[in-house]
Design brief:
The structure holds 2 protein chains of 2 kinds.
Chain A (H helix, E strand, L loop, with lengths): L14 H4 L15 E9 L9 E7 L4 E6 L5 E7 L10 E8 L6 E6 L4 H6 L8 H5 L4 E3 L2 E3 L2 E2 L12
Parallel strand pairs in A: 1-8, 1-9
Antiparallel strand pairs in A: 1-4, 2-3, 2-5, 5-6, 7-8
Chain B lengths: L6 E3 L28 E3 L36 E9 L10 E6 L24 E5 L5 E7 L4 E3 L5 E3 L2 E6 L8 E6 L18 H5 L4 E2 L10 E4 L2 E2 L10
Parallel strand pairs in B: 3-12, 3-13
Antiparallel strand pairs in B: 1-2, 3-6, 4-5, 4-9, 7-8, 9-10, 11-12
Classes of the chains: A mainly beta, B mainly beta.
The structure holds fe (ii) ion.
Fe (ii) ion (FE2) binds next to strand 9 of chain B.
């Protein structure tokens, strides 16, 4: 049997299994160059999604972490500023799981102050401006803000998994 | 700047072998499924890396959900074991598995679970382990109960264990649910039925297993997990 096992939703109670220990710091909060990322997961009605979990992978730095959303749909991650690699601009790969999602969503978060690298990035540069805009974080309070809109106006650009 | 456009594709269920994001019978998918086409990343950009977990991330006791409290949990004790395989059929060693489930009465230890069934003071319902060198894993737990939900009138979920696997790469990540053979609720469950192909659905159902059934102690269920290789854009 080598056919893949199908995906199923994490359901509403995944915090028992996936969020029992704090893992939102990909690097320790006080670490040199650590950057705080906050965002909200929002559904097609513009409502916050309080039962989602966002997993982040920084390939260049080898950092991984995740955070479940709170009642307001907010998640918080702390990581080292990602570096670019292989001709790609610095970014984090993000997977979103939630009640209602039968399989995860894959997206990317790029940095707002990397205009040159972003312009040359093979993914960002091949997207329409409005799609590109959904993948670039905004500066906020000394850190970054990155909202993930699952559906509707300003939907985040998602990639095939 | 590249003038190369990326290919957009509609969400696919791979011939019924995977769910689609939008599955209206599962009500919560309606406002959460993305509506815009998905962007296909070219092969050259496919990320084959992912986080690595080690023995420091798990304790041996994490794999026995019946031994996490002072007393034994109520319910039917079971052994759930199997292998994590790549699409090449080879075992995936040292990968992290996480499971969570309702107790034998069908109740989760979670603040949002309103099912009027008892909590079990001796059961949390969470476990984790690393696969061995051959990709094998083994959990001891109790069989979870079916539970009601509000998707449609008189909706009940078939008994299941939620299961998360990391695999070799971040994009091989799989979260799924393991069901038990012969459950009468299968045909009425929109989550299970979101996988249209009956053969693929069957891959979500564990098999009763004499070999891992421990005499005078616990029933054995076998569940192998096959991770997909992520499809990538064909080279021109
Ligand atoms: Fe469940």
């Amino acid at each position: 049997m080598t056919e893949p096992t199908p995906s199923q939703t994490v359901g509403p109670f995944f915090t028992i299994g996936l969020c029992a220990r704090p893992q939102q710091e990909l690097v320790p909060e006080g670490a040199d160059g650590a950057v705080a990322i906050s965002g909200r997961v929002i559904d097609g009605d513009g409502e916050p999604v309080p039962d989602a979990v966002v997993e982040a992978w920084d390939r260049a730095g080898g950092h991984w972490g995740r955070c479940g959303t709170d009642a307001g749909g907010a998640f918080h991650l702390v990581t080292a500023r990602p570096a670019g690699a292989g001709g790609e601009a610095p970014h984090l790969a993000l997977l979103v799981f939630a009640r209602g999602l039968l399989k995860p969503l894959l997206t990317r978060m790029y940095l707002p102050d990397e205009k040159e690298a972003n312009t040359a990035d093979p993914v960002l540069s091949a997207l329409e401006p409005d799609e590109r805009a959904t993948l670039v974080a905004r500066p906020a309070d000394g850190g970054l803000t990155f909202d993930i809109r699952l559906q509707g106006e300003g939907q985040t650009t998602f990639f095939v998994l | 700047m590249s003038d190369r456009r990326l290919v957009r594709v509609e969400d696919s269920d791979r011939g019924g072998r995977e769910p689609r994001y939008l599955h209206p019978e599962y009500r919560s998918s309606v406002k959460r499924a993305p509506a815009a086409p998905l962007v296909l990343l070219p092969e050259a950009l496919a990320d084959r890396t992912g986080p690595v977990f080690g023995t420091g991330d798990v304790a041996a006791a994490d794999a026995d959900l019946t031994a996490q409290h002072d007393g034994d949990p109520l319910g039917e004790r079971i052994v759930v074991s199997g292998r994590v395989l790549g699409s090449d059929g080879r075992g995936v060693p040292g990968t992290l598995l996480e499971i969570w489930q309702a107790n034998a009465a069908g109740r989760y230890r979670h603040g949002s679970d309103r099912h009027p069934a008892p909590l079990d003071p001796n059961f949390t319902g969470a476990g984790r382990c690393l696969t061995d060198a051959d990709g094998r894993y083994r959990f001891v737990t109790v069989k979870p109960g079916a539970y009601p939900w509000r998707n449609h009138p008189n909706a009940w979920r078939p008994a299941h264990i939620h299961l998360s696997v990391f695999g070799r790469a971040f994009i091989d990540r799989l979260v799924t649910q393991m069901y038990f053979p012969g459950d009468p609720l299968f045909e009425f469950d929109p989550i299970f039925q979101s996988v249209r192909d009956p053969a693929a659905r069957q891959r979500l159902v564990s098999a009763f297993d004499w070999e891992t059934t421990a005499p005078e102690w616990a029933l054995g269920y076998r569940f192998d997990i096959v991770l997909g290789s992520t499809p990538i854009e064909e080279s021109p």
